């Protein structure tokens, strides 16, 4: 099956510092509470707190492994900080970088979703009961002190957010201070979820990228529930149907794959790879006429799949000699 390239590389910063009280006080003095839409419009409660999120205290420069251990255990993966340190910690940089955080989540059979970088996306995700790894700069731009924490709740009337951070679980921080420290990481936030679950506060494009990137490590069969969840939430997403078609095909569900590829072409008639895969799948199902029509449509569309479509047409439907 044909797979167009989808890739995403986050900014790489190193985090692994202890809390700097003086810097936080400086930031708190000049920070303002972020603007948040009416909670009713957002569909979230005024308060939310995720109970029983495991807490792992941070040792020197180990905030990355500690934060990942918390969200991985919450998602059902039993793993300790010591097992994660060799996969994450970079001694020469005294911390962990974002790409390694994401790669480690994938190796543990979970999908790392990087949220849209705004406070409302974070609040929606917390309200849905999904803890979030956040990256903060606990100092000033000229002397950054990068740190990972895990957000587990919020209180809008009190203007606070609740974090597992440093050596202390369930610490409330003023939203103004939190947003000031979080903004310096471009508001980087990540959720680790099992296949089939998608964060509340994420765009269709970001969710598509996360699931596609997970295919580097996890099989199409393992990721099929995620593709199913993606098109259920965004039924007009052509690339979601395309990914689901590939996952169903790999699972042996050829009829279901054909249905998914049809939906992909319906929502994006210019998606040549979907027409090509639809034609090949239908040919395997013995639906020759519809297969030929799909391959001819793929061959008419300019781009990287045009030559392949023409070659498949010639091989599967050779012209008869006069």
SSE order and pairing:
Layout: E1 14-15, H1 21-30, H2 39-42, E2 47-49, H3 63-74, H4 81-88, E3 96-97, H5 98-107, E4 111-114, H6 119-127, E5 132-137, E6 146-155, E7 160-165, E8 168-174, H7 175-183, E9 189-193, H8 204-214, H9 220-233, H10 238-250, H11 254-267, H12 272-284, H13 288-300, H14 306-316
Antiparallel strand pairs: 1-3, 2-6, 4-9, 5-6, 5-9, 6-7, 7-8
How would you explain this protein's 3D organization?
- With 322 residues, the protein is of the alpha+beta class.
- The chain has two domains: 14-193, Cysteine proteinases (Cathepsin B, Chain A, Alpha-Beta Complex), CATH 3.90.70.10; 219-316, Serine Threonine Protein Phosphatase 5, Tetratricopeptide repeat.
- The chain has 14 helices and nine strands.
- The protein has helices at 21-30, 39-42, 63-74, 81-88, 98-107, 119-127, 175-183, 204-214, 220-233, 238-250, 254-267, 272-284, 288-300, 306-316; strands at residues 14-15, 47-49, 96-97, 111-114, 132-137, 146-155, 160-165, 168-174, 189-193.
- Strands 2, 4, 5, 6, 7, 8 and 9 form a seven-stranded antiparallel beta sheet that branches. The chain has a two-stranded antiparallel sheet with strand order 1-3.
- The chain is elongated.
- The protein starts with 13 loop residues before the first strand and ends in a 6-residue tail after the last helix.
């Amino acid at each position: 099956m044909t797979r167009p390239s989808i890739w995403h590389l986050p900014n790489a910063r190193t985090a692994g510092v202890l809390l700097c009280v003086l810097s936080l006080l400086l930031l708190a003095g000049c920070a303002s509470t972020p603007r948040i839409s009416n909670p009713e419009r957002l569909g979230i409660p005024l308060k939310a707190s995720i109970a029983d999120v495991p807490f792992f205290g941070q040792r020197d420069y180990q905030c990355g492994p500690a934060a990942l251990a918390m969200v991985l255990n919450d998602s059902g993966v039993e793993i300790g900080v010591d097992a994660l340190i060799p996969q994450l910690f970079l001694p020469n940089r005294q911390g962990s970088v974002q790409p390694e955080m994401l790669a480690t989540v994938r190796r543990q059979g979970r999908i790392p979703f990087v949220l849209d970088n705004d406070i409302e996306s974070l609040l929606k995700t917390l309200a849905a009961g999904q803890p979030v790894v956040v990256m903060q700069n606990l100092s000033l731009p000229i002397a950054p002190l990068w740190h990972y924490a895990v957000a587990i709740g919020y209180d809008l009337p009190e203007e606070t957010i609740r974090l597992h951070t440093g050596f202390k679980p369930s610490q409330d921080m003023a939203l103004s201070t939190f947003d000031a420290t979080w903004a310096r990481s471009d508001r980087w936030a990540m959720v680790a979820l099992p296949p089939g679950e998608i964060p509340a506060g994420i765009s269709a494009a970001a969710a598509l990228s996360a699931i596609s990137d997970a295919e580097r490590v996890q099989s199409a069969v393992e990721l099929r529930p995620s593709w199913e969840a993606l098109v259920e939430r965004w039924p007009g997403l052509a690339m979601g149907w395309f990914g689901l078609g590939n996952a169903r095909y790999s699972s042996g569900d050829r009829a279901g794959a054909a249905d998914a590829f049809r939906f992909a072409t319906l929502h994006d008639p210019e998606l040549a790879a979907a027409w090509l895969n639809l034609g090949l799948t239908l040919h395997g199902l013995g639906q020759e006429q519809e297969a030929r029509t799909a391959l001819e449509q793929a061959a008419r569309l300019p781009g990287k799949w045009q030559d392949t479509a023409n070659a498949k047409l010639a091989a599967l439907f050779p012209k008869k000699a006069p």
